[in-house]
Amino acid sequence: MSLAGVVGLFRGKPKHAVSADGRMALADHFRELRARLMRSLLVFVVLFFVALFFYEELLDLILEPYNHAREVLEADVSTEAYVKGATGPLMLQLKLCGIAALVLASPYWLYQIWGFLVPGLTAREKRWSRVFAAVAGPLFLGGVALGYYVLPKGLEVLIGFTPDGMQNLVEFGEYFSFFTRMLLVFGIAMEIPLFVIMLNLAGIITGKQIGAYRPWIIVGTFIFAAVATPSTDPFAMSILAGVMTALFLLSEVVARFLDRWRGRRATGTDQWADDEISTL
């Protein structure tokens, strides 16, 4: 394959005429998808090699919650982290740097997904999806940061169950899986109230309906936190459930405000009763 052919894999330029409304031939859609995937893969590979350069710093970041818990439990429990097998250290480095590259490249590959989907959206859908994208990122990162904050306490509780006279050995592969699940659960949980607001914007649910089911939503939130939290300790569960409950209540307030705002626009008046059903 020539250099021009390789460059063409990353461009994905349509070979057929594009209609006025942005419609393309099916082959051109696949060509565009291939180009976006190739560009995302290239960014991932570059960031993977960058992560290899900062491997020691990444390892310290991952192990910090465990080291903190070990220092707290030092007088009561003897615990050590270890890597299993002859190929364990190599697989550890590849896995850790791969996850780091995937996370660091997420703004770019999410942008590529957005760019591929945008031509098929209406103007209104594009506007609200931009709002969704702008809020979803900080919420997810905030959830990840919260999970990282409560992780040492959860490890203290779990490792603290080690019987007297026994040593606790933590295999790093299992610890890393536990670490990523914990942060993902907290990050995704922060997105749920945002989806509630998006459903309200789509006219599927109203703020009044959310309020009617508020007690059940709160109970369900605590059940979700108890089941989804990998550490299973009450501290992490309570933190996750408390933050999610606060965000749910905030989403209800926002949904009621949006209902009232749409009601005023529909009727041309500011007189809209709180208990009145929206015309939507």
From TrEMBL:
Regions crossing the membrane: 37-55, 92-111, 131-151, 178-199, 211-229, 235-255
Pfam families, sorted: TatC
Keyword field contains Cell membrane: yes
Family annotation (InterPro entries): TatC (IPR002033)
Places the protein is found: Cell membrane; Membrane
Main localization category: membrane
Domain of life: Bacteria
Annotated membrane topology: Multi-pass membrane protein
UniProt key word Transcription: no
Keyword set, alphabetical order: Cell membrane, Membrane, Protein transport, Translocation, Transmembrane, Transmembrane helix, Transport
UniProt record similarity statement: Belongs to the TatC family.
Purpose of the protein: Part of the twin-arginine translocation (Tat) system that transports large folded proteins containing a characteristic twin-arginine motif in their signal peptide across membranes. Together with TatB, TatC is part of a receptor directly interacting with Tat signal peptides.
Subunit structure: The Tat system comprises two distinct complexes: a TatABC complex, containing multiple copies of TatA, TatB and TatC subunits, and a separate TatA complex, containing only TatA subunits. Substrates initially bind to the TatABC complex, which probably triggers association of the separate TatA complex to form the active translocon.
Name of the protein: Sec-independent protein translocase protein TatC
Natural source organism: Nocardioides dubius
Gene: tatC
